[in-house]
Amino acid sequence: MPEVGAREAIDLETEREFRESVRHFVDSTYPLSSVRASIDRSADYDLTAWAQATSDLQVAGLHLSEEVGGEGQGLGVTGIVFEEFGRSLVPSPLLGTVGLACTTLASIADIDHERFIAPLLSGDATATVAWMSENGTWDPRDTPAVVSGVGDDLHVSGTLDLVIDGACVDTVFVVARTLSPESGLILVAVDTTDAGFTARPLDSLDLTRRLARIELANASCVQIGGSDETKTIDAALLAATTLLCYESAGAARRAMEMSVEYAKIRYQFGRPIGSFQAIKHACADMLARVELISAICVDAAQELTWGDVTAAATVHAAKAFVSDAFFSVASETIQVHGGIGFTWEHDSHLFFRRAKSSELMFGDAGAHRALIAQAEGWRS
Amino acid sequence: MNDHVQEFRERARAWLEAHATQRVKRSLPPESGVSDAVGNDIEGARARQRSLAEAGLAGIMWPEQYGGAGLGVDERLAFDSEAAQFSTGLAVFDVAMNLVGPTLLAHGTEEQKRSHLPAILRGDEIWCQLFSEPGAGSDLASLSTRADLRNDGWHVNGQKVWTSGAVHSAFAILIARTDFEAPKHRGLTYFVVDMAAPGVTVRPLRQMTGDSHFAEVFLDDVVLPLESVVGEIGDGWSVVRTTLSNERVSIGGEPGVEAAQLIGLAREGHHGSVEMDSALVDAIADLHVRNRVLKALEHRTTANTAAGAQPGPEASIFKLEYAALQKIGNDLALRILGPAGLLQGSDAPLDGAWQRNLLTSPYLRIAGGTDEIQRNVIAERILGLPADKDDNRRQPFNQLVRG
After folding, report:
1. How far is the first Cα of chain B from the last one, in angstroms, to the nearest whole number?
2. Distances (CA, A) of A94 to A48, A105, A205, B329
3. β-strands A171-178, A146-150: how paired?
């Protein structure tokens, strides 16, 4: 583990300024009130706002290399964007397009980045990555998608489930295998206007997260990368998991702040409920969780950026911890708010839904602990 | 990276390799900082401390004029990170180095600094802390040990408790009440006490492990010279706050229970040990995760400190989480030992080391600010939630209800 000082010192000031600019953008473009409005209308993503985010803040390319048109920053910089978007539960293509698609594509050697990455960076197009089967695991190796054909005439078939933004993007990058039994994982691009592509939006528990079931019936596809992109896909999933944790960090902090604010203004028994120790201590515990969540996100992003051998283990630790910690904060938020926290109109349940969904997405705490135990050789 | 810091780091490592013992990670629990063992081999500890000072590695950030190295936070952090893998056996100087030193540097007179700081660094002076009383724990400001000014100095009468290392100490920092009419926080004065003075009686306090790391200290008309006051008369609470802020940071400096130790323990298969089932593996993995997260908090605190940021809630959060994890770790160890957990001492596996740890760990949630106080501090000072209502902080001390 490199010593403190061997790494670049965090420039707190630069980080703070960047965070402020992102927060300002989010507060003016996607206030929490607009999020609620979009849920009630079951509206599509606001792509004008997304185009602004990609052009003003370069949200799509911050951690991508300069060779593919990115900004060459560390993963933690994109993490800050996810954190600030998470704060307002912003419904946007951020996780699908940036967290999954851009992250995956940017790691593929010799990719035609003008064709596949540039449109995502500019906000002209959106995308996602799909690999889950019905009743499947989050392991890309279990993908049900199979590619047949040769050269430029490839087709892919299979049913993919719980695809993030699957029904509202331009391109779905599918993790697949070929017919050959020893086939490693490959990545293919499917245009969502293709005749063989059907996507059904699913009723997502998290009202701010769009999920879809995709039927691929011999859909035309283009192979991206080589005959075995397993390592790339695994690495991309670790990065996407880390970004999801950052998103949870931002949302958890917002939920905690809402609780603290309410505890100061809600009076019962002649005084603010925050003056009662039970509430006060619940809030203190929420802050403790939020700070711990934040800290592990930074470590995970740094280790991935620097290619530390411990990076995967740290990401698993992050996801294991954040999964439960964010949900705990969201549950306590409802508790601190009492009855009003249980209403549809109050924002608490939006955080509760986001927390439960994010807990499960990319593997829950138990799943990531199992991966840690497996890597360490702790067998029962 | 800065060459000077790298050079310093190498010097630190060289000293540690020569004078300290490598921490060995086996199935044994981490050593406790509150066992009788801390007082073993005082002469050895003094020799090591002197050697550390001669190597320019003691009082790293203390000013050179008082014997310190006069260096910065980068060097301090470098030393701490190297020392993490070693056991230096210098715990008997913890109060002096971590509490007294910073307090005197902030509030002491020139004379106090000159006469004590170099001696502390050389290991010539062992200090203890006379703060808590049987009637004043979490509500420390309600203490009633009194100091009355007479012709020949301050006459101190009262009783202190939970004093670490009093038996070995040459000096003490004392907080006593000098004004009984003022509200509780405003009538206190901070003193330096010569523990060899007439009237000082130390009685070892037996803790639940059977050890006596702590003591009660009785002060029967102990006379302190006027120069023993630290800071202003009646403003002792300001000085106490400096001391306490350093205390919060130093608890949790010991390494905690690690997953690898528990796995090792389970694999050793001592007589009666349970099988490692998937539930146990999951529980151990959870401890592993939480340890890693706590380490991340340490990284963040270190980075903030190095960047000169104001301290936030990290120290309180760290202590809460660290204490919780030791309980979890010890509970898991006893779970692994199975029925052998019914025994202790030499009849138990590993000489009862885990049982001793189990019996020690409750103190972590109580000493240095209880869990409840930590939560109050976070809630009130960081989150700005209203203070507890019953506050007696404005009434004259002599009108307070105490029990």
Report:
1. 57
2. 14, 15, 18, 39
3. parallel
Q: Do B168 and B46 touch, CB atoms closer than 8 A?
A: no
Element (H, E) at B194: strand B188-194
Both tokens assigned to A251: 């949302």
Give the residue on B whose Cα is nearest the Cα of A12. Answer: B307
Quick: pLDDT tens for B119-128: 999 999 999 9
Q: List all residues 6 or more positions away from A99 whose beta carbon is below 8 Å from its beta carbon.
A: A82, A239, A240, A243, A244
Identify the closest residue of chain A to B291 by CA–CA distance.
A317
Residues A35-65: tens digit of each pLDDT: 888 787 666 788 999 999 999 899 999 999 9
* Mean residue pLDDT across chain A: 93
8 Å CB contact between A299 and A270: no
Q: With contacts defined as CB-CB under 8 Å, which chain A residues touch B387?
A: 275
Contact A274 B294 (CB under 8 A): no
pLDDT at B129 over 80: yes
Phi, psi (deg, nearest 5) at residue A320: -60, -45
User: What is the C-alpha separation between A106 and A123, in angstroms, rounded?
Assistant: 16
Radius of gyration of chain A (CA): 21
How far, in Å, CA of A373 to CA of B263, rounded? Answer: 10
Q: Output the six-digit token pair for B151.
A: 């012709």
Interface of B with A in 282-301 (CB under 8 A): 282, 284-286, 288-290, 292-297, 299-300
pLDDT in tens, A122-157: 999 999 999 999 877 899 999 999 999 998 999 999
B304 to A272: CB separation less than 8 angstroms, yes or no:
no
The B residues from 348 to 387 touching A (CB cutoff 8 Å) are 372, 374-376, 378-380, 382-387
Nearest to B321 among A5, A288, A368 (CB): A288
A271 to B386: CB separation less than 8 angstroms, yes or no = yes
ipTM of the complex: 0.90
Report whether B239 contacts B232 (CB < 8 A).
no
Q: Is B345 exposed, middle or buried (0-12, 13-18, 19+ CB in 10 A)?
A: exposed
Instruction: Pick the range with the lowest mean pLDDT from B66-75, B223-232, B282-291, B309-318.
Output: B309-318
What average pLDDT does range A351-371 have in this prediction?
97
Q: What is the pLDDT of residues B315-343, one digit of tens each?
A: 899 999 999 999 999 999 999 999 999 99
Fill in the amino acid letter for B112.
Q
